[in-house]
């Protein structure tokens, strides 16, 4: 388990801020390989990393495979996915 850095915010607000940072790091690291495979298959119009980076933590937790499927379909068809 990673400990907080000195001076890091504490309490529920600090926890939420830290969770947002962790989500952003995971989006950059853990989703790079699947995002790259998706880009190779469907082209550069599908950007999973950017999709996750725009989400708040609660949204990302509630997201599903279906959300990603619709992101890809919308990206390929030129529709907005907001």
Structure commentary:
The protein has 82 residues and is mostly helical. The termini are far apart. The longest helix is centred in the first third of the chain and has 19 residues. The chain is 67% helix and 0% strand. The mean pLDDT is 77. The chain has five helices and no strands.
Short descriptors:
mainly alpha
Brief summary of the model shown:
This protein has 5 helices and no strands. With 82 residues, it is mainly α.
Order of helices and strands: HHHHH
Q: By helix and strand content, what is the structural category?
A: mainly alpha
Q: What is the rounded Rg? A: 15 Å
End-to-end Cα distance? 34 Å
Spans of at least 5 consecutive residues whose pLDDT stays below 50 are none
The proportion of residues in beta strands is: under 5%
